[in-house]
Amino acid sequence: DFQSHLQRCQQLSVTVLTDHQDLSNTGLRTILNSTAPQQYRIRAKLRTFKPQKLHQSIKLHCSKCNSLKEVPNADDFNLFLQESAATAPNPELHNTSWYDSVMWTTQDQKQRKIAIHFVKHDEMLQDPEDTLLMIEGGTLKEVWKLSRRFKCVIPVRSTEHDLELLDLSAPFLLQGSVKYYGCKQCSTPKTIKSLSTLAAEQRPSWEPTEIAQVLGIVPLQYVFIMKFTLVDGTGALNAYLFDY
């Protein structure tokens, strides 16, 4: 795997970057004293790389404000779900013209109230693999179970007048095992009612980019970032890898 490959690179005496074969090798000290942009070919040793664990290389990037943030872990998401469950679903927001609602109370000690809203198309419910639904009061386990069966799952909470997204520190959308996040700085979240315009389309695709747009969300993209320190006896150069 990639991690063991990097470790093997460290064990080798020399790492060769093979681009620009037409150029002769240039010492790192010369490169460090030069002004960018230039093209060089180097012969260097890989001294260190960061992060040490591959999963830590994955970040969330906003292409609008160019900010980077850590990918929230499951505990963070679970905490937001618990906080939203403290507000009981508002029955007045159930069974509208564009979604059908189901609500029940759990049999455990907490007796949580859970509401699921299934978005309709042409006044009909779609097959699970084509269905977008919204859930209130669910646990992390329940949300994951739904996201494996239905195409899109949006965690929401009730207000007095409409359903709304959770805090954007939580994902605004789940598709299978993928969680989609929005930029808190650049987004201007709208109420869930905005989704009714997509539901009214002839064939709603429920693409994350379209869902984000109608909800006023600037989506964050998953990026891969690593830092390599290269040495050749004349100097040390930090090289950064950044890719989608």
TrEMBL record:
Record-linked Pfam families: POT1_C_insert
Domain Protection of telomeres protein 1 C-terminal insertion: 75-219
Single Gene Ontology MF annotation: telomerase inhibitor activity
Gene Ontology, cellular component aspect: nuclear telomere cap complex
InterPro entries: POT1, POT1_C_insert
Source domain of life: Eukaryota
GO process annotations (BP): regulation of telomere maintenance via telomerase; telomere capping
The protein's name in its UniProt record: POTE1 protein
Organism in which the protein naturally occurs: Nothocercus nigrocapillus
Phylogenetic lineage: Eukaryota, Metazoa, Chordata, Craniata, Vertebrata
